[in-house]
Structures are given as C-alpha cells and as structure tokens.
Amino acid sequence: MRDQTPPSGLPFMKMHGLGNDFVVLDHRAGGVVVTPELAMALADRHRGVGFDQLAVIELSDKADAKLTFYNADGSLSAACGNATRCIARYLMGETGKPAVTLLTERGLLPCVDAGDGLTSVNMGAPLTTWREIPLARDADSLRLPLEGDPVGTSMGNPHCTFFVDDAEAVDLAVRGPEVEHDPLFPERTNVQFAHVIGPDHLRMRVWERGTGITLASGSSSCAVAVAAHRRGLTGRKVTIDLDGGTIHIDWREDGVWMTGPTAHVFDGVWHG
Fold it and tell me: What is the reported pTM?
C-alpha cells in the first residue's frame, strides 16, 4: 500500500462508539483515493491501524458532510450508525453547532447533541420487504425461513435478528458467518442474537458483515429494536446492552433514532 500513501503519510483519526472502533479519514480538503486494498491494509490490527469500519468524510453541497463507509474486508457499507454518531460529534465540536446533517448512501441523516455527552442520529425508516432487505426470494421478513425463526430488516444494510433465551450462550464465531453467507442473503447480512432482559430492555450481541464480531453496532441496534417491536416483545423505545456498553433506540414516526456516547481516541499518520 506504500504506493497509495502520500510521502508525508496519511492522516487519520481513531474513534469508537461503545468499543465499535473506526478509522476516520477527513478528505474535505482532498486526499488519496480509498480502494478496497487500502481499506484492508488500514484495517489490519497488526500491520495497519485496525478498525471495525473505515469512514471517509468528504464535502457535500447537500449536507454538512458526506460519509462513505468500508468494512474491514474492504467492502462498502451503506450504513454505520456508531461512526455516523462519532463524526457528527466531531463536526459539532468543530463548528460549535448543536446539530448537523450528514449525507450517506442511506440518505440525509439528522444528528443532534443529546446532552450529557451523548449524540443522537436519525438512521431513517426501517425497510422490511423482501426486496428492500434484500432477500434472494419472496419471504415473510417477520418470520424468515431459517432455523431459529429470525427477523429480517434493512437499515440501509441487511440485518438478520434471532431472539434467543440467552444471547451469551450463542457461539457467535460459528453462527455469525454461517448466517452472513446464507444463500437467502444475496448481499450477505449482519447477524444479531438478542434476548429480553425486561420491559423495553434487550441484551444483544452482533456479527457484522465483512468484519466479524464487534463490541457494538449502531445499525444492528436499530434493526434489533425494530424487530423486537414487530414481534411484540418491546415498545418502540428500547435500551440495548451490547458487549461494549448501552445504547438507546427510539423508533419514531420520522425514523429510528439512536442515542449513545462517542470517543475520539487519538489522531495519527499512517505511512503504509
């Protein structure tokens, strides 16, 4: 990757939301072209920087900034809720504004300072038809034809949610990739296992498409909240405990709002 890296190195920021970690490239003033190969090199936790997702900030004439996301395997991701929240906090700090709008493949996402160090992002309306998720064939997204009776949802990226007795007992390293690559999902899928702790309170673990096990996932949290309400397990406003901490999801009329903490860990320069 050295030939793709400027002689002076590639500046980056390291951020995380509940342990779901990102490398962020601020390319509003221009920068190198991000390729899948470059993304994978940066993602390498031994020889690169390491991340669950890579986020690139660019200028936009429709929003405060445009975001593009890559998974650790170099594939593109249309949505990344925790990274969106982290970058929204960064831009609000930079501009002094209490709210920003970010353009992603998912569309325009409003982001606001929720107080107490928390940031809220409207991740948009969930998509639940088989073509929207997408599935390989016509199927009821509320009862997918897979062992374990999961729910299918799209938050701009596909999700498959299993409700189980104990999410802790699931061998995520085995079940996650099995479901991610099931033929039912032509674009692969994110996979969640969740159980009900109490009224409007869930415990969830996640396998992310193109990355693997992560401590948290914003879009997965939104999908789980939507699936739980559709199944009649919770109301529309839920608290979800992830491996990396707690996030709050509120499925409103204007979209699924996600609220949680962010962290800007350090800035660096990668020389490839």
Answer: 0.94
